[in-house]
Design goal:
This protein is α/β, with parallel strands linked by helices. The protein is built from 5 helices and 6 strands. The protein has one domain. The model has no long low-confidence stretch (mean pLDDT 77).
Length: 146
Amino acid sequence: MGEQFFEILGIENLDFKYSKMNDHGYDIVTTYNDKRLLAEIKGNIPCKKEETIYGGNQKNGIKKDIDNLLNGKADNRIEDISSNEFKDAYKCLILLKNNLSAIENYTGNLNNHTEYKDKFKIIYDNNSINKELSNEQINIVFVNLE
C-alpha cells in the first residue's frame, strides 16, 4: 500500500523509513515538498453492515493512528522529529479504496467531538492529491488492493 501511495504522489526514488507492522513510530516517514510526511497505513476491511461500518477494534486502531498523527507519538523511535517539523508535516492516513463509506461514517462521527472537529481531509481524487495535500489536517488517502 505504501508503494501505491508514492506512485499517487508521483515520487519514484524516495528516501524513506518504512516500518514493519506493530513497530514503534510511524509506518512511513519521509520528506515531500521540503516538509516531513508522516503516514499510517491501515489495511482494515470494514466488517459491519455491508462493509460500511468498522467494528469496535477496527475503530480503536484507527482512532489510535489518528491521535498519533494529531498529537505525535511518545514512542517514536524511527528518528527525531522536532516539534516544528511535526507541526508543519503532512500527515496521512492511508486506507484501502473500499473503505470510503466506512471512513466517511467514522470521521463524521468523530467530527462531532470538539477535539476532532475539522481535523480530516478526505482526498477523493488521487489525481489531484498534489494540489490537495494539506499540512493543516490529516489527509485521508485511498489506494486499491492489488
